[in-house]
Amino acid sequence: MKNTVTLFEHLSANEYNVFATGKIHHNGHEDQSIFKNSDGTSGYKVEPSFGPYPWDGDPAKKSEKIRGVTHPDMPASLVGSRYSNSFGPIRDLSGEIENGTWLYTHIGEEYKIKNQNNRDLTPDLAQTIVVTCFGLGLACNLTGLHTLKIKETDRLMALKNELEKLGATIEITNKSLHLEPSCQIKRNCVIKTYNDHRMAMAFAPLSLKVPITIEDADVVTKSYVSFWEDFENIFK
């Protein structure tokens, strides 16, 4: 798939001018070459928004290829693999990494954590956080989620629908979510993914606690082709 000609490349190669905004591609084509018009101009003016990544303040590690330093919680089996070593929760790292902070590599600016509950700049983490809290029987309150309603699906409503199947008590607004603590997870539920890779990956760990079925599980290939293989290997 990585060598497939995109619609933008096809149009510009046939002397159309292309213009784009928002989330056009999930990954790949980071140099934005697919948006280059025949006159040399670019129809896409925003750099890819990758990050944030753990960072130790070293300017040499601002590179898009290096992407910061290894997160303290990165599974040892995945460190140094083809994946970024930054997998782990966003939290204060100053006590675990010397000069530890977070970095947006695409603009080279430090990411300041507001608090553990505010997801304003990292809303895509919400699904994983909420489902994990539910699996652990913990309460969860998240804010800054206004963009989740315009992703692959309305992720707030999708979370509410699927967690309620499992027995959760959950309330949502246009920009926030509140999950009550619970002590029981319903078994043998079928989890819809809504054509959203993050729904499949967020609910996957619940299968370690109760039997569940995830519909359209291959949706993860949008961003993580070997997700199910790696998921299985971690728990062997």
Topology:
Blueprint: H1 7-13, E1 53-55, E2 101-104, E3 109-111, H2 126-136, E4 140-143, H3 155-165, E5 170-172, E6 176-179, E7 189-191, H4 197-203, E8 212-214, H5 227-234
Structure description:
By secondary structure, the chain is an alpha+beta fold. The protein is built from five helices and eight strands. The chain folds into three domains: about 50 residues, no CATH class; about 60 residues, no CATH class; about 110 residues, UDP-n-acetylglucosamine1-carboxyvinyl-transferase, Chain (Alpha-beta prism).
Question: What characteristics describe this protein?
Answer:
19% helix, 8 strands, three-stranded antiparallel β-sheet, alpha+beta, 236 residues
